Amino acid sequence: MRLKKMTAVILSGLMLLPLTACGSTSQTGSDAASSVEPEIVLDVAFENNSSEPIGAGWERAQEIIKEKSGGKMAIEVYPDSQLGDKSSLIDSMLLGEPVCTLADGAFYADYGIKDMGILFGPFLFDDWDQCWTLIESDWYEDQCKKLEEKGLKIIASNWMYGERHTLTNVPVNSVDDLKGLKIRVPSNEIQSYGFDVLGATSTGMALGDVYQALQTKTIDGAENPIATLYGRKLHEVAPYLILDGHVKNFTTWVVSADWFNSLTEEQQNWLVETAQEAGEYNNQVLQEAEQEYLQLMVDEGVTVVDPSEEVLEGFREKAASFYEMGDRFGWSDGLYDTVRKAMGAEE
Q1: What is the DSSP string of 249-280?
Q2: Which pLDDT value is given to residue 34?
Q3: Where is the signal peptide (predicted)?
Q4: What is the Cα–Cα distance from 9 to 44, expressed in whole angstroms?
């Protein structure tokens, strides 16, 4: 109940901001937009539950794009894998379909932009500021251009997905406790090896299948941000959580490059501005909600381990070998150092 109340307050307060700024003109535009039949409709689909901050972010985006376009563009939202998993959605984009989903560097690596895979490496970022510095860098811009040549256009990179933690059906108090455990990860090479180096046995699986797999003990655990772990109710069948924060997960939203380029410049601007503004909103909701999700998990019987710096150093030491696997991933020479420099990290 506390989470619902808190989220409602956040949503109500944030939704009032643009309306207050625009005054009566905004209301007139809204009335006009409601009578216009949209010329362009984008289907935004994802595996997450609509109750998660991502769902709130795209609800806000529906309002933003309607206001910006005067009702000429619209967004339809399909949570809970209603339109399929991430890979099938990306395949649809490559056919030019008007579909959008969230994806990350690990998936882009599988689609040919090998260097972007490093963005999902374990313990790459020291803090969130490094993420935001990186997405404004020349290196990142170059990677996005290469991705567009492959048929995929990133429209926003400023969405926090959250720090990824590990939920298991047996206690994990240090990296050594992961040895031999089957841990679900998204189905891509980077995240699989990223968890294997920690001593676990990674298992690629669609998010919608994880609850049953944990329930039947097909797997021993799963990793994801707190909002997703709670939103999918995975703690009901895996009651041990270690806050290892192995990936600071900023996520991107991607569409078909061919479809995007078929839009007018004005329509493109409406879409990109909407996605980025909705990202800022998502981040506010997420940051406010995470502690509430965590408390709810504790209240519902989850044992939470907040590891010491010494324990986390053990994770980092294990993770270091991942960055020696560049040849396996097809990375450019010196990629780790290049990316650390682009994010403003001091070595």
Answers
A1: EEEEEEEEHHHHHTS-HHHHHHHHHHHHHHHH
A2: 58
A3: 1-23
A4: 25
Would you state the structure tokens that stand for residue 200, as one six-digit string?
A: 């676990």
CB atoms within 10 A of CB 141: 11
Radius of gyration of the chain (CA): 20
User: How far is the C-alpha of 231 from the C-alpha of 215, rounded, in Å?
Assistant: 16
Rounded-to-integer distance, Cα 57 and Cα 44, Å: 11
Determine whether 316 is exposed, middle or buried from the number of CB atoms within 10 Å of its CB (0-12, 13-18, 19+). Answer: middle
Distance CA 224, CA 229 (A): 6
Split the chain (347 residues) into runs of 10 and give each run's mean pLDDT.
40 39 40 72 93 93 98 96 90 96 90 94 95 97 97 97 96 97 92 94 93 97 94 96 96 97 98 98 92 95 97 96 95 96 84
Coil, helix or strand at residue 169: coil
Distance (Å, rounded) from C-alpha 286 to C-alpha 291?
9
**Which residue is listed with tokens 């298991």?**
168
* Cβ-defined contacts of 112-117 (< 8 Å, 24+): 112/150, 113/143, 113/146, 113/147, 113/150, 114/329, 114/330, 114/331, 114/332, 115/143, 115/331, 115/332, 115/335, 116/143, 116/147, 117/189, 117/190, 117/329, 117/331
Whether residue 292 contacts residue 6, with contact meaning beta carbons closer than 8 Å, is answered with yes
pLDDT for position 86: 86
Per the CB < 8 A criterion, the answer to whether 56 and 285 are in contact is yes
**H-helix or E-strand containing 65?**
helix 53-69
Fold observed for domain 2-342: D-Maltodextrin-Binding Protein; domain 2 (3.40.190)
Residue 222 one-letter amino acid: A
- Domain ranges within the chain, ordered by starting residue: 2-342
How far is the C-alpha of 62 from the C-alpha of 64, rounded, in Å? 6
pLDDT the model gives residue 4:
41
DSSP 332: P
Is residue 54 a contact partner of residue 282, using CB atoms and an 8 Å limit? Answer: yes
Q: Is the dihedral of CA 325, 255, 129, 338 positive or negative?
A: positive
